[in-house]
Amino acid sequence: MPDRTAGRGTGARVIPLAHEQRRKARKVTPNEVAARARAAAASRRQARSARRRADVARLPSEGARPVYGALADPRLRKAASFARRRLEGQYVVDEYGYDEELVEDVMAPLLDFLYESYWRVEVRGAENVPKHGPALLCANHSGVLPWDGVMLTLAVRNEVPSQPVLRLLAADLLWRIPFLSHWARKAGITVACDADAERLLLEGEMVGTFPEGFKGIGKPFSERYRLQRFGRGGYVEVAIRTGAVIVPVGIVGAEETYPMLGDVKILARLLGTPYFPVTPTFPLLGPLGAIPLPSKWIIEFGPPVETEDLMPEAAQDAMTVFNINDGIRDTIQQILYRNIMQRRSWFW
Amino acid sequence: MGQRILITGTSRFLGGMLAKRLESDPDVETIIGVDTDPPLFDFERVEIVRADIRNPLFVKVLQTTRVDTVVHANVVADELEIGRGPMKEVNVIGSMQVLAACQKAQDLRRVVVRSSTEVYGSEPDGPAFFTEEMGPRGNPKTGYHRDILEVEQYSRDFGRRRPDVSLCVLRYANILGNTVDNPMSQYLGQPVVPTLLGFDPRIQFIHEDDAVEVLVRAVKSDVPGIFNVAADDAIYLSQAIRLAGRIHAPVLPPSVALAARLLGLLPFVPVPVNLVRYLAYGRVSDNTRLKTVFGYEPRYTVLDAIHDFALKKRAERMRPEPSEADWEEDLRRFIDRKLAETTETAGPDPAPTPSGDFPGGLSDA
Prior knowledge:
The complex is a heterodimer of chains A (about 350) and B (about 375).
Chain A: H1 32-58, H2 74-88, H3 100-118, E1 122-124, E2 135-139, H4 147-159, E3 166-170, H5 180-186, E4 190-191, H6 194-202, E5 206-209, H7 214-217, H8 234-242, E6 245-252, E7 262-263, H9 265-271, E8 277-278, E9 298-301, H10 318-342
Parallel strand pairs in A: 1-9, 2-5, 2-6, 3-4, 3-5
Antiparallel strand pairs in A: 6-9, 7-8
Helix pairs in contact in A: 3-4, 6-8
Chain B: E1 3-8, H1 13-23, E2 28-35, E3 47-50, H2 58-65, E4 69-72, H3 79-82, H4 84-104, E5 110-116, H5 143-161, E6 166-172, E7 174-176, H6 183-189, E8 192-196, E9 202-203, E10 205-207, H7 208-220, E11 225-229, E12 235-236, H8 237-243, E13 247-252, H9 256-263, H10 273-281, H11 288-294, H12 302-318, H13 322-346
Parallel strand pairs in B: 1-2, 1-4, 2-3, 4-5, 5-6, 6-11, 7-10, 8-13
Antiparallel strand pairs in B: 9-12
Helix pairs in contact in B: 1-7, 2-4, 4-5, 9-10
């Protein structure tokens, strides 16, 4: 009788079925296709870092530029050189479109205000995120606008600095929206599809997903912190196929940023959005209604769920996938309840 | 016996360059170029047949010349070049005829079809990288997309009917470099480049040297299959424009359909409809199969291709009389060839046979 995967200290109560094969040892080669995909991904990863080094080396060096007298202030000078390099196209983005310089020098400093001061994000269980190697973060989704994705990215960036940027997977609606779509790309977000997630995980990147999707982010305030259906478990299949660890994440605080009191279905249909929110400030105050409430946030990373010892064929087994999916959903719900109880109020 | 090769589309960049490269290959016995338009270069060895690939006599050309390799590179990407109607005729009916003729050619061993990454379309929810096994997403929205899908369908049918012929389908990304002239290079070559406001797609190129090299290798090898021919990396359109030294002008309305219509009215280089969708949503394909199965590592990245393109543009601006320089080069080439010819006729070297034996009164080069 196979032992429980839960026995591995996961907290996710995953009970393997009797017919499930388990790998004899960790280092057993999976089937050949997967091995080839892995090798290709590894060489892509190497080629990418080599290319990045070459591209960066080709950028004009700072010293080669004349310094104007008016720009004596080093901060001003830095800003001017940044602007000039941007206008000349002298910067490096990776092939997924992640623009590290733009994120680190422009986006993150602006958003750090929200992270540090406005929502005072508190991170728990950061040790559950692997320091290196692929991981699939799986979080609850809430709060009308996907600020939880932004804060989760910042939390990983601040608390697990050894990992590369978190690559969030975003639903197709985002990719139709002008401006937002390419900013999202530049911040490292990619399309929510198996192909992208699998490719990134095989290349050793960290991927973040919100399996509830629009059902989670667009749920009424009365249903706050009640997890919706976790999609069809596609993310579990991807994790099994790539052997990546799944880390359940509970995010508390996003629900109160925009308490959604109602949903104008007719307007939503007209605009082609999944919902049209009515909050205490929107649409009453117009654009001002987009200002979120300063709730207190807690992001907790739960114990990781290993998928590496499952055969890749387990991804085809709907019951295995369903069980793991259910276990992760359960873990996140527990994290949410625990953290809500510990929070004194919405705001601190 | 050397390789006997027939190339369609010698008036176009890929077909012409391929013929030029194969000329100097001693293993190639015969090169026949079929195109209605005059060829890209004045060739020395290539026999040019001025014929329409849609003509039923085309099959006779294949049979009488007993070619063992056919390269179908006569695919028109630019809707504005000849108009949508003729473009469809050339792409769809032309490919149908060429592949139908190939089916009847008994000596054939190898067929190479030039396709495009356009088969994947340009959709907002497309994956970051398209691999060869991914089919088209949604319905084709542009004429070129539909054409390319049909070209590939005919290729698949051909592959099924003639399993003895090794079939290679090359899906090319946009070709860019220092000589190629195509819709993308014209678009990026404008002093002010209009883009869709609010959209900054990831795009991808293949350097022209790599593009030609892949085609040459496809002719020389017999690896079957479908391959994306693209550089390793991708770039944002905005960065590409800036690196090319152009002014980036995000001016057009963020509605793709409206933009396509308005683009025709603006005083810029007209942009084909399929390029407009590409400028909104982009498309990047994965070249892993090209590297591992086909066995070719692209030598240039997307940045290299842009860099070469920018150099060319800068050089063009510096050159005082481009027409005169072109003319001079033509003259020099002519003199060189005549010189070579006189030395050749003096020696015992067998000159390429004139193609007077083709039915239908087809002329040679």
